[in-house]
Amino acid sequence: MGKSNNKGSTIHNNIRRLRFDHGEMTQQALADMVGVTRQTIHHMEAGKYSPSLELAFRIAHIFNVPLDEVFQYEPDDS
Amino acid sequence: MYKGVKMMMSFQEKSTWVSLGITLLIFGAYFTFAFGVFSDAETPAGVLIPVFIATVVATTIIQAFLHTILGIAFNKEAEKGADERDHLIELRATRISYFILVFGVFATGVSMLLTASPIMMANIILFFFILAEVVGFSIQLFYYRRGI
User: To the nearest 10°, the Cα dihedral for B109, B114, B117, B118?
Assistant: First the structure.
C-alpha cells in the first residue's frame, strides 16, 4: 500500500493492488488511461506524490470503485 | 506479491537535466571570461558585448538541437507533454528561483549606487538570472528524485 505524508495527515492508496486485481494492468497502461506519465503513477504508488482530486477520481473511475477504495485519508492526530 | 518496477526518468526530467547541463556549461564559461575581464583593468568591458551575444545564440541553438534530439529519441513520451506532477514541480521551483531573481534586481540597484558601469550592471543581473535558472532546474531535479 502506497503512503504519502503531508503536514498533519497521511494518504494511503491501493493503486498497486487494484492494478494487480485488474489483470495485472501495467503502470504505463494506467498512466495512458488517466493521462499522466508512468513516473507519476510510480510516485503515487510509492507514496511520493498525492494526486489532484480530478486525477484521483479518474483513477477510481478506471477501476470502477469508489474513491475511498483507492485512497484513504488518515489524520496524524487519530 | 508485486515485483518492484525499475524507476526511469520521465521526459520532463531528462529535458531538465539537458537544460541544466547546457546552462552550467555555456554560462559557466561566459562568467569565467567576464570575471577575467572585470578583474583586468586594462581590458575594456565592451569586449563582453559580442561574447554575450555569441553566448545567447549558442545557448539557443544548442538547447533547440539537444531538445529536438531528445524529442526524437523519446518521441512517445515527448508527445504526452507535462502532466500535473511536472507542473507542480515546476511551480515549486519557480517560487524559489523568483526570490533569487528579486535579490538580483536589488543587487543591481545597489551596484548602480556604487557607480558600476552599465555593462557591469547588466552582467550582475544576468548572473542572478542564470543563478535563478540553475537553482530552479536543480530544485526540479531534486523533487523529481525525492518526490513531491
Answer: 10
Q: With contacts defined as CB-CB under 8 Å, which chain B residues touch A55?
A: 84
What ipTM is given for this predicted complex?
Answer: 0.83
Cβ distance B48 to B37 under 8 Å?
A: yes
- The position carrying cell 489483470 is A23
Which residue in this structure is represented by grid cell 531538445?
B67
B12 touches A: beta carbon within 8 Å: yes
Q: For residue range A20-51, what is the model confidence (pLDDT) as tens digits?
A: 999 999 999 999 999 999 999 999 999 889 99
Which parts of chain B sit beneath pLDDT 50?
A: 1-6
Least CB-CB distance to B83: which of A40, A42, A47? A40
Q: Which residues pair with A5 in a beta bridge?
A: A10
pLDDT tens-place string over residues B81-105: 889 999 999 999 999 999 999 999 9
Contact between residue A49 and residue A43 where contact means Cβ atoms under 8 Å apart:
yes
- pTM, two decimals, is 0.84
Residue carrying C-alpha cell 511536472: B86
Measure in Å the smallest separation between the Cα of A14 and chain B Cα atoms. Answer: 12
For residues B20 and B135, give the distance between their C-alpha atoms in angstroms, rounded to a whole number: 9
Contact across the interface for A42 and B148, Cβ inside 8 Å: no
